[in-house]
């Protein structure tokens, strides 16, 4: 756990210092790999697509961890896998692009980079939509990857990223798939979406817990309870949809309390800026708790 936490800290620092790092993430190999199993369907497609690369990653990780004096090499391998699994775009820079755009049209265009990768619909330029989009992007680009990395090592981080990639059409220029087509069959995509929700669920709850600690506790817990009290939501097992409602309530409460010196919850840029501050505070809480767990393991 200590080495994994150190790897997370180093990778996050490198991504911050090297702004061009995300552009070197290439996923074309995985989209080509999925084409070989396009005849499979549903859970079979997901299993045949994910298991080979994850088994390979797990074997390399286990071998390196078992060789004496190879801790540094394992850390290097784990760091490379984690850096590859984060993103694929940098969240901070995407939010900056919206906040620093010179006019509404530029902001609207920049805001589309916050849209969920499996959602083709344009993202409306409203405060609630942008807050939700930013927090969902934070979960899927950063927090869920870190959660599964700390829990299962490089294999967990890579597994999460590959599941998310099953829901994304290959970017133009990265794959031979014709424009408008996807390498994931419809029922395979549905199975991948269910698996993705399952993987998002625990990380989303930990984000909510951290939001309650760093924001308005009452507003966060009330939004969480109200979302689950809805009959339609309560019937959906392992659905992380509560995260958007909680994020809106948390950001609204912070803005109304004068966080940042402005109290207008209808101001898109104010709300988005506060959402970014909220995500930063959540990250600090996560890392602090992980550090306490490591220290507890040393002294207990």
Automatic annotation (TrEMBL):
One of its GO terms (cellular component) is plasma membrane. PANTHER family: PROTEIN AMPE (PTHR38684:SF1). It comes from Oleiagrimonas soli. Keywords: Membrane, Transmembrane, Transmembrane helix. The keyword Coiled coil does not apply. The chain crosses the membrane at residues 43-64, 71-87, 143-163, 282-299. This is AmpE protein. The lineage of its organism: Bacteria, Pseudomonadati, Pseudomonadota, Gammaproteobacteria, Lysobacterales. GO terms for biological process: response to antibiotic. Signal peptide: none annotated. InterPro entries: Beta-lactamase_Reg.
């Amino acid at each position: 756990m200590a080495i994994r936490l150190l790897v997370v800290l180093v990778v996050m620092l490198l991504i911050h210092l090297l702004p061009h790092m995300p552009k070197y993430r290439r996923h074309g190999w995985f989209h080509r790999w999925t084409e070989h199993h396009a005849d499979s369907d549903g859970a079979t497609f997901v299993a045949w697509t994910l298991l080979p690369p994850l088994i390979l990653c797990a074997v390399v990780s286990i071998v390196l961890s078992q060789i004496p004096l190879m801790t540094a090499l394992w850390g290097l391998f784990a760091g490379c896998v984690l850096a590859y699994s984060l993103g694929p775009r940098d969240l901070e820079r995407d939010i900056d692009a919206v906040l620093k755009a010179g006019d509404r049209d530029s902001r609207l265009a920049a805001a589309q980079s916050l849209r969920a990768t499996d959602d083709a619909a344009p993202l409306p330029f409203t405060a609630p939509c942008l807050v939700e989009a930013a927090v969902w992007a934070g979960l899927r680009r950063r927090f869920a990857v870190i959660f599964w990395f700390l829990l299962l090592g490089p294999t967990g981080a890579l597994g999460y990223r590959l599941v998310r990639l099953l829901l994304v059409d290959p970017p133009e220029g990265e794959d031979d798939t014709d424009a408008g087509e996807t390498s994931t069959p419809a029922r395979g995509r549905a199975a991948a979406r269910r698996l993705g929700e399952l993987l998002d669920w625990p990380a989303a709850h930990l984000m909510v817990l951290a939001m309650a600690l760093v924001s308005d506790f009452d507003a966060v817990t009330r939004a969480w309870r109200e979302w689950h009290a809805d009959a339609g939501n309560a019937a959906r097992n392992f659905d992380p949809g509560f995260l958007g409602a909680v994020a809106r309530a948390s950001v609204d409460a912070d803005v109304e309390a004068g966080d940042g010196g402005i109290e207008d919850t209808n101001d898109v840029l104010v709300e988005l800026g506060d959402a970014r501050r909220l995500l930063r505070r959540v990250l600090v809480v996560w890392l602090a708790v992980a550090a306490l767990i490591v220290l507890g393991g040393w002294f207990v």
